Amino acid sequence: MSKRLSEALKTLMTNTRLIVDLAYSALIYKAEEIIPEIFNLEDYIDSGFRELFERLLEEYKTGRISRDEAYAYMTFARSLEEIADSAYILAKNLLHGYKPHPIIKTIIEESETSLTVLYVPIGSKAVNKSIGEIIEKYGKGVEIIAVKTGEHWIYKPDDKFTIREGSFLIVKGSEESLDSFRQEIGAEEVLEEGED
Amino acid sequence: MATIISSVKGESTLDMSVRDIIATLKDVSELMLDLSLSSIIFRDKDMANEVMKLEVVVDRLLEDLDIKVMLSARSIEDARDMLPFLSIAEMIRSISNSAADIANIVFQGKSNLKEIPKIISEFEGLIAVLKVQKDSYVDGKRLDESLIETRTGLRIIAIRRGDVWIFGPEGDEILRGGDTIVVRGYRKGLNLLRKMCTEKEVQLNEQEA
C-alpha cells in the first residue's frame, strides 16, 4: 500500500475523532462559534474520503492491493466517514438557537472522557509555554483538542504550539485529570449559561 | 462502567433517567470505538466479539431512550427541548454501528487486514498491551489507588485475566499479577506504566525522559 493511502487513512481517523469532540463541545460551549467549524471539517473529511476511495480503486486496479484488502480498507474508511456525518447532523440540529442545556453539560462533564473549556488568564502557568511542555508537566492524560487565541480556533494544535494569555482551550480527559490540570496551570473553567 | 454494562445486559433500563442513559451511551460508544480499533491492531476476535455484544446493549439503551423521550414530552416546547438529546443519541447510534462494522473486519479473514493494524497503531492515540508482573507495584492494587491514569495519562480499556476479559473496568477493579491490560492514551506515559507493571518500587513523581 502506498504511503499516501496510509496517510489518508490516518488523517481520516484523526479528523473523525476531532469532529465528534467538536460536536460534544458545541453542546456545552458557544454552539454558534463551533458549528461552522464542524461544517468546514465535515467538508474536508468528505473530500478526503473521496480521494481515499479513488486511490483505493487505483491501487486495486494496478494490483498493488487485493480485492479483499481493498474491501477491508473501504469498510474501515466508510465507517469513520459515517461517524463524521452523524457529528455533522448533530451540529445542524443545533443550528437554530441552541443554548447549552444544563443536563447535557452534566452528562458530558461527568462521562468517563469528559470535555471542558478553559480560559487562560494572565499569570497562568501555561502562558508562553508549549503544549508539549504543559501536558508533560501538568496534564498527563489530558488532550488539548482546540485553542482559540483572538478570533480563531486552531484544531489539534501540535506539541510546539505556544499558549498565550487570554486563550481558550477545549480539553479532553477524565474529570479528575481535567480538574487537576485546570488547578495546576491556574486556568478558569468557562461556565457558559444560556443568554436569554 | 463494567457494572453498568453488565446490568444493562440483563433487564430493561427504563428505570434509568434520560441523563444516565445518555451518559452510559456516550461512555459505551467510546469504549466500542477503542475496542474495535484494538481488535484490529491485535487481530483479536474476543475484543471484536465484545464490540458486537456492546452494540446490542447500545441498541437496547437507545430504544429505552426513545420511549422515555416520547413519554416526557407533553407540549411542543417539551418536545423541542428534547431534540438535542435525540441528536446526541443519533450520533451515538452511528458511532456504535460503525464500531461494529470496524470490528467485523476482524472476522473477514486476518490476511485482509495487511497494513491496517500498523496504520492504526501508528496513529497518535496510542493503544498498547502490557503484562502485569507478580509482586509489581500495581499487583493487588485497585485501579483508582494505582494512580495509573493520573500519573501516566493512560487509561485501561480492558483487562484480560486468564480466559476472561473485563472491558471498561471501574476504579474498584483490582489488578493481579498475570493480567494483561490494554491501555490507550498518552504515548510518553508508557515507560512509567511499564515500570509500574514490572517493578515493585516505583517513584511516581519522577519526570519521564
What would your notes on this structure say?
The complex is a heterodimer of chains A (196) and B (209). By secondary structure, chain A is of the alpha+beta class. Chain A has two domains: 3-93, Up-down Bundle (Methane Monooxygenase Hydroxylase, Chain G, domain 1), CATH 1.20.58; 102-189, Alpha-Beta Plaits, CATH 3.30.70.1450. Helix content of chain A is 57%, strand content 13%. Chain A contains six helices and five strands, in the order ααααβαβββαβ. Chain A has helices at 3-28, 31-61, 67-93, 102-110, 131-138, 175-185; strands at residues 114-119, 143-149, 152-155, 168-173, 188-189. In chain A, strands 3-2-4-1-5 form a five-stranded antiparallel beta sheet, sandwiched between helices. The mean pLDDT of chain A is 87. With 209 residues, chain B is an alpha+beta fold. Chain B folds into two domains: 2-113, Methane Monooxygenase Hydroxylase, Chain G, domain 1 (Up-down Bundle), CATH 1.20.58; 124-198, Alpha-Beta Plaits, CATH 3.30.70. Helix content of chain B is 55%, strand content 11%. Chain B has helices at residues 2-10, 18-41, 45-72, 76-104, 116-122, 143-146, 148-152, 190-198, and strands at residues 126-131, 154-161, 164-167, 180-185. In chain B, strands 1-4-2-3 form a four-stranded antiparallel beta sheet, with helices on both faces. In chain B, helix 2 (18-41) runs antiparallel to helix 3 (45-72), helix 2 packs parallel to helix 4 and helix 2 crosses helix 5. Classes of the chains: A alpha+beta (196), B alpha+beta (209). At the A-B interface, helix 1, helix 3, helix 4 and helix 6 of A face helix 2, helix 4, helix 5 and helix 7 of B.
